[in-house]
Fold these 3 entries.
Entry 1:
Amino acid sequence: EHVDDTLRTGFHFQPPKHWINDPNGVMYYKGVYHLFYQYNPKAAVWGNIVWAHAVSTDLVDWVMLEPAISPSAPFDVNGCWSGSATVLPDGRPVIMYTGINEQDQQVQNVAYPKDLSDPYLREWVKPDYNPVIAPDAGVNASAFRDPTTAWQGPDGVWRLVIGTKDNHRGLAALYRSRDFKRWAPARRALHSGDTGMWECPDFYPVTSPGVDSGRKHVFKVSLDLTRYEYYTFGDYDYATDTYVPDPSLADGNEGLRYDYGNFYASKTFLDAGKQRRVLWGWANESDSTADDVRKGWAGVQAIPRKIWLAPDGKQLMQWPVAEIESLRGKHVNITDKLVRGGSYFEVTGLTTPAQADVEASFQVMDLGKAEPFDPAWRAVDAETVCAARGADAKGGVGPFGLWVLASDELKERTAVFFRVFKRDDGAKHAILMCNDPSRSSYADNLYKPTFAGFVDVDIAATGKIPLRTLIDHSMVESFGGHGKTAILSRVYPTKAVGDKARLFVFNNGESDVKVNNLNAYDMRSAKIR
Ligand code: DQQ
């Protein structure tokens, strides 16, 4: 079987070939990180789904193992879909996943490691008493899946939620158990919303460094209809199993997102070793199915991100786990370089700009040039604004930022950029962050959406906007405002590949911009064996 390597990633997780989707059962157990994921062992399209398995001690290099869970029994013969791992108080991990049974119903099954002394936990056993949760009468049996990691209340009872829907209403159905074997539905869902099927819910306590944030809980869902995820955080009462999002937060399609780009079916786990919460998410392809078949592969996992509550309590923050910095090689630094309105320059000196880590801080020299923010652009609908004002639309302050994966003649390039608008309300400025892939490739049949989010940076106070972009052949994964806004795009250059790719800083605004500091690093490839 032929695999086309040209746009495969160097330091983002991918198996050697075939289709992957959701991260599953992510966990840290006795010094080892486990990543399971939805995988088609036979082809580069979705189907024949099993839980593939990889392990790592540093979230960078991976050892690929045999699939941990494959269809084998009446309760999962038609597929082993997404789910989560829970580490029990006695130290045993347990997986709960969705099986597609003989009747094509979605049921929840458990699996336990066969041999706890195997550090990689290669083999998993499915008890005969599966399924442990089947859809009751009144539950939509073809929309009842993706159990979360369970949590235990002070009463010793386990709880978890399952994504489902009732007509158009998405639901996080709550179940309880004393023994992880017999589960009973709660009378009320943990949360619900008028947004269609809720896939891959996640629910967890979140911390904020240096702040006693008082046990806020995060609730995230993946919306099947829009293929976006959104989250809220708020207060969770164990006694009544009630979750109330903070009233200042929008719920539903208008809510906050982990990532404003191509990032779906994500899942977090508690890294007990490093006392942090880590987020994994899946980046789908944006080329055609025919292209995926030709390439022999499809799907990438985003860089694992540390996730925490911002000290101001307004949103979550994310940052690539520090371990990936161990892959940094050759380093290029630029300090205090002025980029006049309408100009650009190349960042030279990297050996592999197609596989790089770029951190930059941009200073706006004349904020007074910011255009007024049209109140018709609702604060959450950054995408509309960015679609109307792309990387080539000259502005007052911005667009400025990076052209990554750029070809020699600059006809292929993916823009990662900011625009600053003046607001008439108290917030003073609106900062838009966009990924514009509209010129990313000469190839046809690509999906090239402009993705965008707002970045909550007080530019009048600091004058600066920080950006970090991980470039990995077909992945452009950016973090604005030190992790306040993340945007992941998939792009498919034809000329800006391998050592032909180039990196630029551009400024299409009227105001000059200064690159206070730019540190770019070649990235070595992770070892995936
Ligand atoms: N992918 C899985 C489902 C889940 C969906 C099937 C989300 O369990 O709802 O591969 O991408």
Entry 2:
Amino acid sequence: MEVPGELVGALRRARSVCVLTGAGVSAESGVPTFRDARTGLWERYDPLELATPEAFEQNPRLVWDWYAWRRELVREAEPNPAHHALAELEELVPEFVLVTQNVDGLHRRAGSRQVVELHGNLGYVICASERTPVSPDEFVPAGEDRPPLCPRCGSYLRPDVVWFGETLSMGRISEAQAAAAGCDVFLSVGTSSVVYPAAGLASEAARSGALVVEVNPQQTPLSGASDHVLRAPAGTALPALVD
Ligand code: BJW
């Protein structure tokens, strides 16, 4: 695919690059997005209604099973050319931060090192009350209709992810904001740009004078405010950008 010369030049000259990714970057690995076509458990339940503390309160086993299903899906998935291109870009730029909203861990598996997982990682489990990590060999089974329990306090266990209405880790959001505000080029890849605070990072970058680039086959609220839009799947656009 054709990449605008100005964009290629800006990336070559960039001292600092910040990338924000969303579910679309993993779509070509077979991991469903949140707001696109539905497969598997997505057919019957709205993912946006399951990713809430209210859903966990009302039906903890359903939410636990949904994440167990996704964990399995992700375990079997492989990073795609978009993940690999971003890992390669990190090696070419003096300062590079990859901020992801994804909880699938595929960026690290592709070799990216400087990764900020804004919404957590579904590979880890925490106690819903204490918020401390619990490893699988410590899980206390609680029957078929409830999630496993914390070995220390007996509360339900839950995935270590950020649901709607929950606050993000201060450390992670500060790191992401500093990277966005300090970069020369900001790439927004495969995100619908509607969930905050992640969706605000592009405007922070633009305010500081960064070139803002969107990679997404569909229009989003960020499209009109971007300096360049690559209307293509990330697995096509990112390798073309990096080569
Ligand atoms: C491709 C492609 C291909 C397809 N290549 N692209 C300010 C204003 C208004 C509201 C708020 C605000 N601040 C906070 C809020 C409330 C709320 C919020 O933002 N709501 C909006 C929906 C309005 N935010 C929060 O609650 C956050 N907490 C917070 O801010 O705390 C303080 C606070 C609380 C309450 C009120 C005010 C302040 C927490 C947000 C946590 C989001 N959690 C989830 C679940 C994570 C765990 C899990 O994975 O299960 O995060 S929800 C879900 O959305 C998930 C995603 O990370 C996130 C973003 O979705 P994403 O990645 O963009 O995916 P999609 O599916 O939406 O888009 C995919 C895109 O890919 C599409 O555009 C496709 O076109 C594209 N695509 N194939 C490239 N091959």
Entry 3:
Amino acid sequence: MDAIEVIRAKRDGVELTTAQIDWVIDAYTGGGVADEQMSALAMAILLNGMDRREIAAWTQAMIRSGERMDWSALDRPTADKHSTGGVGDKITLPLAPLVAACGAYVPQLSGRGLGHTGGTLDKLESIPGWRASLSNDEMLHVLREAGAVVCAAGSGLAPADKKLYALRDVTGTVESIPLIASSIMSKKIAEGTGSLVLDVKVGSGAFMKTTETARELAETMVALGTDAGVRTVALLTAMDRPLGLAVGNALEVEEAVEVLAGGGPADVVELTLRLAREMLAAAGVSGKDPAKALADGSAMDAWRRMVAAQGGDPDARLPRAAETTTVEAPASGVLTRLDAYAVGLAAWRLGAGRARKEDPVSAGAGVTLHAKPGDTVREGQPLLTLHADEADRFERALEALDGGYAVAPADTGRLPLVIDRVT
Ligand code: URA
């Protein structure tokens, strides 16, 4: 077999055989297929698609390229959540300890932000001392200590995906449902969780801009998980506006802690509780009320244990950006639109995100919202506060927000927070 034969087949719209898929992933991981050949194949897949059998074979081959974690020594079921990424999406932070407090273990391998979407590890790293890199033994220790662990995937997990994702990122081949679904699910299946809830975001701030494409991605991922023996469900949730009132690393940790303390913005609380109930049901844990675990402090206790077990100080003061500026409401009326992509881009330009994987992020940078779509505002009242370490970042952030919000005499409606459930 050779790479040219496989590329030509997909280029000409021919289904790849399982043997071809196994060979190409194996050879690419080992260096026998060159990056330029894999780029051509990724583009052919983006243009011509893959059917369910091809996607399943591709996913299994990527899982086999590395180690598969095993939590069968634990005495309780495992559950995880994966979000396809958005703006202000800090849900993992309150959710993981909440589900742990209700009786399931949460072993979550998470990622860093790229572009306008934030990454869970970047958020947690704004806590002084907190460490993202753990060995498998350390993961097990944190799980036993706190019930939940959120850390970086080691280099041994789905190495084929690591290589391929970096390549897709620079060759315009990220936006392919078969490639996104197999990339996400290879890591989640290799992570060894018994059950998985997918939060597939829909809207301007998400990969998937429409409910139809999000549903196709969700159905593909649910089928991959289910076929691999992982109890998998997906929610389609709104990402046309930011989630919560804080966008940016330390700002989002603060908001997550408010939720764990029994407060926090209504949408963050609602989605956290909904996902917690889905995770517990998928894990087969019954008789626990996540709302009670938020109210009685047991979720907060699990959070504190989880942060401390990974070297972080849960009582430390979080970093603050040195400079702020405000954006005011241009008129009185209803805030009908506050675009997730515009706010995410602004936060990125303020320093909260990175342009290249190796770039550092600012812990304190970001955007605070003072109103959400649907709220009544008065002309001149603060709508947003922008936070940055250097004041010269404000100009380009304000440009990103230009046209990203609207105030009108009457509300125009928006996507429901939870749009649909896919099983
Ligand atoms: N996240 C991933 O892990 N892979 C993709 O392809 C897209 C988002």
